[in-house]
Each structure stands twice: as structure tokens, then as C-alpha cells.
């Protein structure tokens, strides 16, 4: 009797459940879509560490930089492909040009092409190879862009003249201007058009074969910076925008009026970027004003009133900049905003944007880029909506 009770109690305490494998799990969601998976925090390094603390970040500036990174493939492929013969590229070759086309190494270019079917297309050629090219819609956008470039030629020539006027010796290697032409809206074929303006430019070939673009005539009417123009309109605004504090001890015994005069001296407008400020003592306050003025004017000449640091550093020698550029710009938070990471950061000219982060003076060429970004975003939203719909259908089927 006792053994029967013990056996009954044992079966009660350790009930035998059916084999779990006999249950259907088709109703369970076993795999989360990649887009909805939580992102792992990236390790802290100069590649990921922000140049601006989270508490001081301005979202609309940060979002512009994030947008550029997101659509790097779109912009770089457009630029690279438009320069190829017949504007086509063999897909096998495209896979090796990850840097030129703006996609991560090891990824398949077909993955990026498929994201933008309204802009890029692939087809099998008579050689039985698959080629990458533009759609008819993209061809129309490129024609519109070319038309704008031709209409803005005089403006682009003026930008190049002002860059040369700011440079130390009024000369800049042609390769530097070409490499950074996109941020100024300078056309691809501008080198072929230099001969049209003998009163402005001279092309010199040095012994090593390097081509140098020199300024022929100095134009006083162009030697006025955007900051100086603003000073004539709103003096107080400019004084508040840039500050160059000088530390001085209280033991100097300065009277209140003298202190105000000293502070006023340190907030006066910059040394003109079109002056010979490069001759100043590089560690003096006036030299710092000159360098800040150079960067301010450089950014004002760009289409989007911003530039990555390597865009500016490439002209370091011509514009007499120092290694302390980062620290110098950090001291002017009223005028410049630094965004991005310590390894790859950008400088924004705050005055070029309204409070919502929109450019105040929008160059016509930027309209083309905005069309591309808008189309790309619409296609991604449609693709994402399609994935979600498919996911829901799968759930209903299960």
C-alpha cells in the first residue's frame, strides 16, 4: 500500500508532459526583421566619438550629415557614372569600385542598385555581360543639372576668383580645386573653360608637371567678405557672433569703461580674409581672427554653407591654416557648429541656416540633389511598407 502511494505521489510531483517537439510553433515569430532589430552600441573610438557632446547637439545639423552618409552610394555613383563613356559601367567592374561608388567593401553593388530602381538600372549587353546605367528619368535630371551649371557659370567663376584672392600667393593647384569642385558647384569641365577667362586666370605648369591656377587681376569689388557685408547691415549681430576673449587679471586695476573697451577690442570684426593676414605672427590674436575669417568666407562660398574638415585642410597651405583649426573653431560656437565624429567631422556656418535647419540662400543646383534624396526616401518607404505588408501576410498565413 505504501509503495503504491509513493508511486502516485511521484507521478503527481513529476508529471510527464508530452514531447515539446509534438507542438506546432508555426504561430510564433521566430525571426525579427533586420530593420527592427535593436542596434548594438558601437565601441567608443575616434571613429564613433562625437565632436559635440549630446547636450549641445543641434539635431537638424546632425541629420544633414547622417543623410549624406545614408545616400553616399547615390551621390557618388551618380558622379562617377556620369563621367564614364556612354554613362554605363560593367557590373563586374563596379563591384571593385566600392570606394568610387560609395558602398562598403565586401558588399554587393546589386544590393544598392535595387534600392533605387527609378534612378539606376542594369541590363545584359550583347557581350553577355551585365551593365549598370541610368534610367531615362535620371538622364532627364542630369540634363536639368547640366543646364543649371551652364546658367551659373559666371557665379562659379566668381567663386574661383575669390578662392584665389584669399590664397597666400594668389595661386592654387588646379587638382585641389577639381577635387573639391562639388562643394562649390564647379562643373566637371571647368578646366577646359579656363581659357575663356584670360583676364581672370592663368594656368602655369611647373617643372614637376603640376598645374597651378593663378589669379591675373585683383578685383577690389570682390575683396569684401560675407562677414564684412553683414557688419555693414547689422554691426551688433556680427559683434555677438564672434568673440576672442583675452584673459587678464583683476589686479590690473582697470576701470569699468576700460574693461568695456578691452572687451570691445576682442569682439571687433575679423581681419579681412582678402588681406595679407598670413604675414601676422601665427600665434597672435589678429592671426586667429584672420584664420577664422578665412574659414568663414570659405564656407560662405560653398553651396551648402558647410564642409567636411578634409575639404578645408586640403587648402591648409594656401590659406595659412594651422593644426589648431579644431580648437580654434570650438572657441566660436556662436558662428560655427561642429558635427560628426572626431575622425570625420564637418563645419556648419550657422548664419547660412534658419532656425529649422533650412538653407536661407539655396543655390539652384541643390534643387537637383533634393529631388534625388526625396525620390530615394520615397522608394525606401515603399520598400519598407512592402516588407511590413509581406510580414503581416505571412503572420496571417501562419
From TrEMBL:
Matches recorded under InterPro entries: PORR_domain (IPR021099), PORR_fam (IPR045040)
A Pfam family of this chain: PORR
Region of interest: Disordered: 28-57
All copies of domain PORR, residue ranges: 57-380
One GO molecular-function entry: RNA binding
Name of the protein this chain belongs to: PORR domain-containing protein
